[in-house]
Amino acid sequence: MKIIQLSDTHISQLGGVTADNLQKFITLINDINPTLVVHSGDIAILDPDNNGDREFAKQLLQGIQAPLRVIPGNHDVGERPENAWAGLVVTPERLNAFTSTFGPDHWLELAGNWAVIGLNSEIMGSGLPEEDAQWAWLETIAAEVGERPALIFTHKPVFNPYPQLTEHNIAIPDESRRRLLDALTGVTLAGFGSGHLHEYAVSTQQIDGTEAVVVSAPATGFAHGGLGGPALAQLGIVEYQLGEGEKRGAVQPFFRNLATLTEVPPTEIAEFTAALDHLGVTL
Ligand SMILES: [Fe+2]
Ligand SMILES: [Fe+2]
Fold first, then answer.
1. CA distances from 103 to 92, 95, 100, 254 (A)
2. Domain ranges of the chain
3. Which band of pLDDT confidence, cut at 50, 70 and 90, is reported for residue 70?
4. How many whole angstroms from 244 Cα to the centroid of ligand 2?
5. Which of 6, 43, 120, 138 is the most exposed place for a label (fewest CB within 10 A)?
6. 2-279, what's its fold?
């Protein structure tokens, strides 16, 4: 079975480079014809309060023929107060704006013999009632997942790939990672996919004697490089081939891209600099 993860589309209602790249990736996704598509957040270009960006992104994403599930990134709903970029803190109002456009911010999909779990990483460590509700929900799903191997998607990485950095918001808080793994005790955690870093990287993680595949998805909007560690700073999406039968539980990620993309630094994207100006942020 194939599923696709796309991430960090960073769409502006003004169109431009990121929208053009997304259109090309949507054609590629429809050619691949996956069972499920997961968007791992930062759907909107920068400002979680811009409904026009959100609505335009939704329109574009409707071009995806397979079922689509989304989880929010920090540019969709804000993030926990500590070290929040541009002071954009997650709030109930921002969460409502997101879920009323895209549906639930956490979900469980049973696809074939697999369980696919999407979680809102941006509320982890926020102390909001929505965070408590997500933890409470997570503790109820093990029974539904049963024996199925599970794939977990979050915007921020569950496992910090850059421990040498002191930037708090590279990954979910350590305490949230422990809580997540505790809540899913007994579930076979076969893989983790995240966004946020705008770089493709694959590694493994030992969890209770099981080797999980850990994937940092590339962005489709613009790439970042140089955060450290082995990684590919190129636009792309991830195709997961999920094993069935004898290969049950096996996760094989593939980096997919196109030769026709426009790959430029964000500061050369007019819609990005316009959004920065609107927020009053200078890089
Ligand atoms: Fe992003
Ligand atoms: Fe992000």
1. 15, 10, 6, 27
2. 2-279
3. very high
4. 32
5. 138
6. Purple Acid Phosphatase; chain A, domain 2 (3.60.21)
Q: What is the pLDDT of residues 15-35, one digit of tens each?
A: 999 999 999 999 999 999 999
Ligand nearest the Cα of residue 219 is 1
Helix (H, G, I), strand (E, B) or coil at 251: strand
- Which pLDDT tens digit goes with each residue over 246-281? 899 999 999 999 999 999 999 999 999 999 999 999
8 Å CB contact between 42 and 73: yes
Ligand 1 mean position, distance from CA 46 (Å): 8
pLDDT 10s digits, 147-159: 999 999 999 999 9
For residue 75, the CA-to-ligand 2 centroid distance in Å is: 6
Confidence class for position 225, pLDDT limits 50, 70, 90: confident
Ion ligand 1: residues, Cβ under 5 Å: 8, 42
How many A from CA of 105 to the centre of ligand 2? 15
Q: Indicate if the alpha-carbon torsion angle 31, 202, 5, 195 is positive or negative.
A: negative
Cα–Cα distance measured from residue 152 to residue 3, given in angstroms and rounded to the nearest whole number: 13
Residues near ion ligand 2 (Cβ under 5 Å): 42, 73-74, 196
Spacing, Cα 131 to ligand 2 middle (Å): 18
* Lowest pLDDT segment from 143-152, 210-219, 220-229: 220-229
